Each structure stands twice: as C-alpha cells, then as structure tokens.
UniProtKB/TrEMBL annotation:
The Kinesin motor domain, residue ranges: 6-325
Entry similarity comment: Belongs to the TRAFAC class myosin-kinesin ATPase superfamily. Kinesin family.
Encoding gene (name): LOC108840744
Source organism (scientific name): Raphanus sativus
Keyword Transmembrane part of the UniProt annotation: no
Protein name: Kinesin-like protein
Amino acid sequence: MKSTEPVRVAVNIRPLLTSEGCTDCITVTPDEPQVHIGSHTFTYDLVFGNNGLPFSEIYHRCVAPLVEDLFKGYNATILAYGQTASGKSYTMGTNCGADGGGIIPKVMEDVFTRVEAVKSQIRISFLEIYNEEIYDLLAASKPSRAPIRIRETNSGEITLQGVTEVQVKTKEEMSSYLARGSSTRATGITNMNIQSSRSHAIFTISVKITTAEETLCAKIRLVDLAGSERANRTGADGIRLKEGRHINSSLLALGNVIKILGGNERNKKKGVCHIPYRVSKLTRLLQDSLGGNSKTVMIACVSPAITDVEETLSTLRYANYARNIKNKAVVQKQKPSTPCFDAMVKELTPSNSDAKNKTVVQKHTPSSDYDAMVKELTPSPSKSESLPVYDKMCMIRRMCSKLFLSLRSHGLPKQLGLMIFLPPPHHLQS
Ligand SMILES: Nc1ncnc2c1ncn2[C@@H]1O[C@H](COP(=O)(O)OP(=O)(O)OP(=O)(O)O)[C@@H](O)[C@H]1O
C-alpha cells in the first residue's frame, strides 16, 4: 500500500531565556496554527509555545501518529530544524535531559508499550554527521572510530557500511544506548549555547513485526540537526569555527533540497527537476525523508528573541517550503521467504558473485550471441512500464524460459541453465 502525503510542519517557539534579557518578536493567532513576525504571517500544521499549543502536547500531536503508522509498516522521520539555541535538542530529548523530557524518550516508551502486543524485534542505530563525515555513535570506543561510508543499492536505497545495529529488548536498554551515544556526540560551548551540538544526530529505531500473514520491517528516524550559526554571534574560532562552517554548508544544502522540492510545481513548469541530494551527506541520508519513502514531520524550532529575528524568519521560510513536499510512503513488507527456491539456488550456485556467474555463462556462449540474447530478452522500459503486474510476471516467465532454452542450446550444463544470469531490468525491480 502506498500513501502520498505532504511533509507535516510544526513550529515550536521556545520561551525567552533569562540570559537573553530582550523582548519577544513572535505572536501566534489564538486557536490557529499561524505565526506573525514583523509584517510576515505564516501558517503551518501546528504551532507550539507562546500562545499556541502547550509544548507538552508536541508528542501526542506530532509524533504519536507516526509511531502508530510505524507498526503498520510505514517508515517515519521526525526532523528538528532551526538556528543554534532554538531548542532542537531540548525538543528531541537527545541531550538526555536534565529535564528528562523530549520526543525520543516518549517514542521509546510508546514503542515498548506497543511491542508487548505483537511478535517483534527492535534494533537501533545512532549516527552523527560531524565535519561532513558520518560516525557511529554506538561504536565501541571513540579513538578507534572511523568514518562510515554511504552505499547506494541498484534500486537507489541508501545504506551505511558497517554501522552498528543493536538489538534491544527493553526500554531501559534502549535509553542506555541513547545516553551512551549522546555523551559521545560532539558538543561544545559557544556564546549562544553552553551545550551546542556540533553535529547532526540521527537515532533510528527499526521494528520488525511478524504476524501469521506477513512480516513488516519499518524504521523511525529521529533527527536532531545542528543549528545554523553566525560566527560573529557565537564567538566561534579555531575548531568551533570549522565546525560552524560545515554545519552551515550542510544546512544550506538541506535548505536547497527543501526549497526545490517545496517549490516543485513552479520548478516543474520551469523544467527544473534535479534534486541535489548528493551535495552533502546530510541530504543523502535524508533522501527518503524528504520527497521519498517516509512519513515525515518537521519541527521548526525558533527563538522568540528580537535579537534572533533574522534567523527566525529564515527558519520560518524554509519550514513554509517544507509543507509543499510530497512523500510517498510504502508499507515495508519483508519479501516472503521461499525455502524450496532458496535451497535450490543455494545448491545450484557455486558462488554468490553475479560477475563470476556471468563469466561462466559467457564462457559457454559466444560473445556476439550473448549480447544479442541480452538485447532480445530485455524489454523496453516504455513497453513494460505500462503493463499490469500479472502481465509483467507472464513476461518475466517468458523471458526465463527463452533464456533457459538459449543457454541449453549453447551446451550449457543443465544445472547452470536453471539460473537467471541477466541483471534484472531496472524498471522491473519494484
Ligand atoms: N521549550 C523549552 N522550555 C524551556 N527551555 C527551553 C525550551 N527549549 C529550549 N530551551 C532551552 O534553550 C536552550 C537551548 O536549547 P537547545 O540546546 O536544545 O538548543 P539547540 O537548538 O539544540 O542548539 P544547538 O543547535 O546549538 O545545539 C537550553 O538552555 C534549553 O534548556
């Protein structure tokens, strides 16, 4: 099942801090998700803080529906976005709270309440993007940690090589991993925040639910971004300055992706359809969350202080673009396991390497014949895309029997002839 829906956007206005000693520059229309700042007015899905909904409602209104959908097999993302010291870590609960609150601890509680009723397996991973490198926050020890590489599968799925995925059985166990990873995460003191995140953090909970009929495998990503900052206000120099530059450039890349996706109708008319996900690691990792296979809520965190008015306006503008992003979430069903077929493949396959198998076939088949055969058996995308699923399956079956006969006619051993060596046509993979 596929669900096309826009990214939902909530704005969270944190209270003025005593250290700020200035006036408030945002007002909220009573009972409306609408904020006013100077002569600008913006409307969102939800507004918390100031005269909007109480902060205590944020989990119930923004996150609980996604956790419910997670158990129906949909991927989900909660993304906290905003300038430095706007309350992102406080909102997400990645600072492992002096205040003990935040979204992630409540997600954990909700997940473990729900798993009691179903047969399930829970795994977690925790990453940070620091100075444009990805690090594993659950890796054994900090000095030995090496950056993690991004890999993209043939179907365009982003995977991370060698990332630690831990299976957890209790909420307490999961909390201890969050605390451990958070303490490893890069933070530092700046003039604007005594505990400023110097990296983007992504805490992922993967859930595998098995029922008599099916197995669902979905994940929820809880993202606490580092905040945009201006060196003249944070007082950053040396390492802090370098960190700030990396933070700003990855947020700029994210902002561009949001702007292009969010302005899509206008861009389509102009013929702009390339989304620059590859510009930074942050956008590559969030590719599915923005414009892809995920139900996503963005929480735009803002400070009400008049001294932050420019940054607040910038956050509100990007949040406004994000509301136009359309995602296509698909129920994540595990492919049914076919023990007989698997056993047969295992028995007949001398090695797992496709390349090696292909070489074996080519050895038994004159190269011109091999190329002609590939051409003949690979249908054109336009032809196959318009076919209903049943017809596609019949076509694949015809292709298989043709291939089998061709291989046999070239004297290929009977056992090898049973295998399909052609790379699957890209447009048929889904
Ligand atoms: N809703 C809130 N109620 C009370 N205090 C808050 C709230 N939100 C944030 N704060 C306070 O604001 C300060 C900055 O918050 P936080 O560290 O979460 O910001 P941040 O956006 O994560 O910053 P950075 O990007 O620098 O990491 C902290 O002192 C935090 O306790």
